[in-house]
Queue: 2 jobs
Job 1
Amino acid sequence: MKRTPRRPNYHEGRRQFLIGAAASSALPLVASDAAARTAPPPSTAETRDASETNLAVNGRMYRVEIDPRTTLLDALRDHLGLTGAKKGCDHGQCGACTVLVDGRRELSCLTLTVAVAGREVTTIEGLAGPDGTLHPMQQAFIDHDAFQCGYCTPGQILSAVGCVREGRAGTEDEIREAMSGNLCRCAAYPNIVRAVLEARDLVEG
Ligand code: FES
Ligand code: FES
């Protein structure tokens, strides 16, 4: 009897998709100082969609071979090894992945890497001074005990810097409104607001 070919069900299809995605996320990164990271060029079918993208992150240039559908959050964490930006919801709802792009806050989980090519990206790893001196907002978060588990903190700090630069830190209510996209499951909000108030005059425009 002739058999009808079985169609893959949803879960099988998704599994195959994830296997493909995992393979492409392992693409080699070629940084501008090529000696730092070298790997053979992609050759498998899974990597056929990779393309070269130049990224400026924390004052350093990177050239990455990346699937154009890769989000900035995944590029930072999985390709550049910058794990400060956190993946909370991966849907634009929690703010844990907030970074600065050309000085303005962006949700890196909703931003395609190719969209920021040639623009200046700042993550929490790039906020302190070259000598390690903490940014005033980082110091204020420490001084005011503005974090508990710390998972949301990198996004909170970068969002706070962005909200001050936007001129939206005049009052407590204004700060709460401007920071409402950054969720903290530990409810450290009162201390976060106090930290932003204290640091706002020290944050450069
Ligand atoms: S991880 Fe991007 S908003 Fe939640
Ligand atoms: S300090 Fe824990 S989620 Fe914000």
Note: Residues 1-42 have pLDDT under 50 and may be disordered.
Job 2
Amino acid sequence: MSFYLIYKQLKDVPIETYMQSVSEADVRVVLTKQELNQEDLLALLSPAAERILEEIAEQAHRLTVQHFGKTIQLFNPLYVSDYCVNHCTYCSFSVTNEFERKILTEEEIEVEAQTLRATGIEHVLLLTGESKQHTPVSYLKDCVKILRKYFSSIAIEVNPLDTEEYEELFAAGVDGVTVYQETYNEDIYKQYHVKGPKRNYLYRLDTPERACEAGMRSVNIGALLGLDDWRKEVFLMAMHAQYLQTTYLGTEISVSLPRIRPTIGDFIPTTAVYDRYLVQCMLALRLFLPRSGITLSTRESPELRDHLLPLGVTKMSAGASTEVGGYSQDDKGTNQFEISDERNVNEISEALIRKGYQPIYKDWVHL
Ligand code: SF4
């Protein structure tokens, strides 16, 4: 089975027409339901829902506290390589951008890990550009061997792998996989992914499923908001998450809402995803997937992150660097995108505590 079969049925659903027919009263009916279906999700993403966001936010807050309490898990990315063989039009690491590429040695990874760990962070997300040549599974395993000494949870955001490769990394100590589909729209996917193995839409779409099959504890998916109509993207991403959740009961499925940030190359997003739309996306996801984690990264401003906190967020990065060697090296790499919230781990922790939230540094130990 593959989500692709469901995608093919969903992609021709007249989403716009349906959404235009939704009234505020219809959305209020959705707010009374215990379990939501596909039409309910569309109602929450509709223009009518935009007009009663406050009411939806109350429900989202209630559900978030019910399932997660007032806790926020903190994690941070750690970039070990910016080599990439793909040309994605929206990313600084694209093979077409000329800059001095970096890949960390074992000694450099050790220092980088120590520096990040000293901030208090215990959950780490290991990132590379996508290049099997430069960062093969053997290199990733070497990285994990070092990171295991410092962190209780290690997730990866690297080039999509085969199931057996995920199994190998799981055995080495990786417990989570993050992979973004970027855009679910198969018709335009190749326009953004001009060159490289990432052009294979289906292989990427099936990646979360292969990670689940390999036994990963957590899998995080997302769409890069700004590449296509955000209502459709969030609808399809939520359906994808629901499919994974009901198929792989042993894996925790969470979602992210990354918006396009400035990069080298001056990519202009096709669709403007204003703050109020981002809020609507988060509320719809919280109501449709009440038990799913939702990540809000440092792509967003401190003010917006603080404002969105009670509405559904469960995971945040803090003091993040999107450069290779960004935590410890004087000679850092090029950043993948510009971050917006530059508060360090302590500052984020204090801001959370001031708002009555408990920052969680560790909820998992790999034995
Ligand atoms: S988005 Fe990923 S695959 Fe595409 S250029 Fe950037 S690092 Fe490479």
Note: The longest strand covers residues 71-81.
